[in-house]
Amino acid sequence: MAKLTIRDLPAEKISGKRALVRVDFNVPLDEHRHVTDDTRIRAALPTLDYLLERGARVVLLSHLGRPKGKPEQKYSLEPVSRRLSQLMPSRKVLFVESTDTDDAMKATNQLKDGEVLLLENTRFLGGEETNDERLARALAELGDFYVNDAFGSAHRAHASTEGVARHLKPAVAGLLMEKELAYLHGALETPKKPFVAILGGSKISGKIDVIEALLPKVDALLVGGAMACTFYKAMGLETGKSLVEPERVEMAEELIEKAGTILILPHDAVVAPSIEAGGKAKTVGRENIPADMAMLDIGPRTAESYSRAILSAKTVLWNGPMGVFETPPFDKGTRAIADAMAEATSKGATTIVGGGDSAAAVEQAGLASKMSHVSTGGGASLEFLEGKTLPGVAILDEK
């Protein structure tokens, strides 16, 4: 069902009102507590600008890291508020070192039109991850309407993503959430054909439901990453020291049988004794993986044929790297996929990168802007593609 978004709110519902916006500012920090990658902060700016230009007083909620329900200085959002101030030089950005307190409440009430207030990490609150009813009601007092723009956290039913929306209405989607849902829903329900999906990463277990959900919809499902080795094992091939999930081999066998020619596995592999021994890397056919080596990337023949498949597609969905992309020379396969997707986009294909490591790889290659859409949510996009209901989306008001 289509959800209401901030675009559906009349001007008088925004102007002078406190917009309680759940964002996903879970960003990496260095040892000096500086933000090292502000992609997620920048992704929220269109929603914030939209509300501020219409006279809203914006109150932001986000989590950062995994504190255990109590304050931990290293997980404070204070460095994030500094970065947000730099990204919004013409706006006043305030920060309060608490969320569920009288101080936070007072700060939201003193906020002026066009100002931004970032509250402290929601996971410092004991009831956040248990979706505590009392906390959800308390958070609802911090705004006059609720906006969820945190797609990356929408698969979790927490007090700041799901509970609060029960008590604060209207509860609508932000522009980033709207964009995420439009692209992912479009790929699943009305993809332009041919529709090609590329799945990588280390484990088949995390992708089984996605494979099951995509098989009936795609024209080709290209597999890369260490998860290919579990399929190899199912085919009776030698996998050497590669990462294999023995308990999933039978399931891989069933998938190969069920998928027929739609499921395509790498023809060749880049192998080495270990990730550290990149100097000893070599390319072998998939039938020739040495017993003392591990597959750490797809081989050049595979990269080439996968690239051709991508360039022949009208819709391409990619989730998971093709190899250990953080460590050369095992980054070539992932880079080839990113390059092919950028080229396919320029030729009119819709290209979607499903968050997580693949988003990091595209960002690292400097190609994020060359994709139709790079999802900000790894786990959330996977669950969406599996056909699961995302609690943080389901609770929002219907159109």
Would you write up a description of this structure?
It is built from 15 helices and 15 strands. The mean pLDDT is 94. Strands 3-4-2-1-5-6 form a 6-stranded parallel β-sheet, sandwiched between helices. The chain has a 6-stranded parallel β-sheet with strand order 9-8-7-13-14-15, with helices on both faces. A 3-stranded antiparallel β-sheet has the order 11-10-12. It has helices spanning 11-14, 39-53, 78-87, 102-110, 133-140, 159-167, 175-189, 208-214, 227-234, 249-259, 300-311, 332-346, 356-364, 378-385, 391-394; strands spanning 18-22, 57-61, 93-96, 116-119, 145-148, 171-173, 195-199, 220-223, 263-264, 268-272, 282-285, 294-298, 315-319, 350-353, 373-374. Helix 11 (300-311) packs parallel to helix 12. It is of the alpha/beta class and 399 residues long. The chain has 2 domains: 6-176, Rossmann fold, CATH 3.40.50; 191-385, Phosphoglycerate kinase, N-terminal domain (Rossmann fold, 3-Layer(aba) Sandwich), CATH 3.40.50.1260.
Largest sheet: 6 strands, parallel
- Count of separate structural domains: 2
> What is the count of helical runs?
15
- Overall CATH class of the largest domain: Alpha Beta
The fourth-level CATH homologous superfamily of the largest domain is Phosphoglycerate kinase, N-terminal domain
Element order: H for helix, E for strand: HEHEHEHEHEHEHEHEHHEEEEHEHEHEHH
User: Span between N and C termini?
Assistant: 8 Å
Strand content: 15-25%
- Rounded mean pLDDT score: 94
Percent helix range = 25-40%
Rg calculated over all Cα atoms? 23 Å
The dominant shape is: elongated
Topology, number of strands:
15
| Coarse structural class | alpha/beta
Strand order, main sheet: write it out.
3-4-2-1-5-6
**Architecture of the largest domain, CATH level 2?**
3-Layer(aba) Sandwich
